[in-house]
């Protein structure tokens, strides 16, 4: 079958821009549509293409559809892209006969949102195996489709859905990501601060923890599914001469034994690349020697979800550590000389003092690339369940992590001006 996988364009709306004329902060990392490359790896018996509308003009969708004539159109979508994907699906359905499938984070956390006539199937959770099974059944023109992990509309607008008991079989490790399908876009995928090409390699799905705001655990039913070191090493090699590798894993060293094994294999293979990994602060503190070993294999930087510097908020986010761990982890990272990308959550109830405290903390600890996201309850997360009655904004276009969808303690203009001031100060360095 002909399968077209689409990465939606940059979308989402900005209250700071629309209401107050405050320019939003540009994203630091621009990456490939890796989830689609992984998905395509499970479609070996089909003719698959990837259209990245974050690189192409949006108008390119229509000539591609007309020329390729896909039997299946698949979309991935994070929360702020959900409405755009529905709009695309409606227009595609009005112009051609094909099946439309949607997956990704928002579909996994809130599949009911896509329970619309223009959507034929919804992939809930990691979909490499599910999507492959679906394509196989559609190719055989089967109508009674009941695949674990795949939801579809039934009479009365309900979803027919059998949950999937995720296991490592869902990783389909013998089928590597289809990096070749984005080769024409490769020049767009750069580490912006260093203007260096960057590729993605997945080491695990899911997460070792369950922070209240995070949309990752629902993608694997709460499990942490680790790829074997052989498949990771293979994928690193498949990226050829790309110098920077982003290790895709919510906690790259969440399994220290497996992380050490992969490190040893990279060294033994003589691979000379630089790596950026997502690491928890408590992992850094508890496994400093492991990071030191990885530095010898090429680890150049880490992305750390510090989230907060105040204990009560860390507890509310269910981070499972206190602020002293954040401070200790930063001391260790500086000792190693690694680049630090620090993720922080700005709560809507921040006061001017809270903003000032965070700004001083970032400056004092010399965090190279601070990323400040406004607390956003994503549907399907524990945070959403506790905060949904207080939401001011339900339009998902604004769920970009740079809008306050909950009431702010400060007047809105003052909140956004203070937030933007801090971001501009650090990112203009």
Radius of gyration: 22 Å
Q: Structural class of the helix and strand makeup?
A: alpha/beta
CATH architecture of the largest domain: Alpha-Beta Barrel
Could you tell me the mean pLDDT? Answer: 94
The total number of structural domains is 2
Notes on the structure:
The protein folds into 2 domains: 2-168, 3-Layer(aba) Sandwich (Rossmann fold), CATH 3.40.50; 189-427, TIM Barrel. It has 15 helices and 16 strands. By secondary structure, it is of the alpha/beta class. Helix 7 crosses helix 8. The chain has helices spanning 15-20, 34-40, 61-68, 82-95, 105-109, 128-139, 229-238, 256-269, 281-286, 288-297, 311-316, 323-336, 352-364, 382-387, 412-427, and strands at 2-7, 47-52, 72-76, 99-103, 121-123, 150-153, 159-161, 190-191, 196-202, 204-206, 224-226, 244-248, 274-278, 299-307, 339-346, 369-374.
């Amino acid at each position: 079958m002909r399968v077209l996988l689409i990465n939606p364009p940059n979308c989402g709306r900005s209250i700071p821009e629309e209401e107050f004329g405050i320019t939003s902060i540009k994203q630091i990392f621009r990456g490939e549509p890796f989830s689609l490359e992984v998905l395509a790896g499970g479609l070996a018996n089909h003719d698959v293409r990837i259209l990245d509308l974050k690189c192409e003009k949006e108008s390119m969708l229509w000539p591609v559809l007309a020329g390729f004539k896909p039997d299946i159109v698949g979309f991935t979508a994070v929360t702020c892209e959900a409405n755009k994907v529905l709009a695309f699906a409606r227009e595609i359905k009005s112009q051609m006969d094909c099946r439309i499938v949607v997956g990704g984070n928002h579909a996994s956390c809130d599949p009911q949102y896509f329970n619309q006539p223009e959507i034929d199937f919804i992939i809930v959770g990691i979909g490499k195996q599910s999507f492959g099974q679906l394509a196989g059944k559609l190719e055989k023109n089967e109508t009674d489709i009941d695949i674990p992990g795949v939801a579809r509309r039934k009479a009365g607008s309900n979803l027919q859905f059998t949950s999937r008991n995720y296991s490592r079989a869902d990783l389909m490790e013998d089928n590597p990501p289809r990096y070749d399908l984005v080769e024409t876009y490769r020049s767009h995928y750069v580490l912006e601060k260093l203007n260096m090409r960057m590729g993605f390699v997945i080491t695990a799905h899911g997460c070792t923890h369950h922070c209240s705001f995070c949309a990752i655990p629902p993608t694997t039913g709460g499990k942490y599914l680790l790829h074997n070191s052989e498949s990771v090493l293979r994928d690193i090699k498949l990226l050829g001469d790309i110098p920077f590798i982003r290790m895709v894993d919510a906690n790259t060293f969440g399994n220290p034994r497996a992380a050490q094994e992969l490190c040893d294999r990279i060294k033994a293979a003589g691979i000379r690349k630089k790596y950026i990994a997502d690491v928890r602060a408590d992992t850094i503190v508890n496994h400093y020697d492991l990071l030191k070993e990885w530095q010898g294999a090429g680890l150049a930087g880490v992305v750390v979800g510090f989230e907060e510097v105040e204990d009560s908020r860390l507890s509310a986010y269910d981070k499972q550590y206190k602020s002293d761990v954040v401070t200790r982890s930063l001391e260790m990272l500086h000792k190693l000389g690694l680049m630090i990308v620090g993720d922080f959550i700005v709560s809507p109830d921040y006061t001017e003092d809270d903003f000032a405290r965070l700004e001083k903390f970032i400056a004092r600890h010399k965090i190279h690339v601070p990323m400040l996201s406004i607390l956003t309850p994503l549907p399907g997360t524990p945070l959403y369940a506790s905060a949904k009655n207080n939401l001011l904004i339900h339009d998902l276009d604004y769920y970009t992590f740079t809008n306050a969808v909950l009431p702010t303690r400060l007047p809105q203009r003052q909140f956004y001006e203070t937030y933007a001031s801090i971001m501009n100060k650090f990112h203009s360095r």
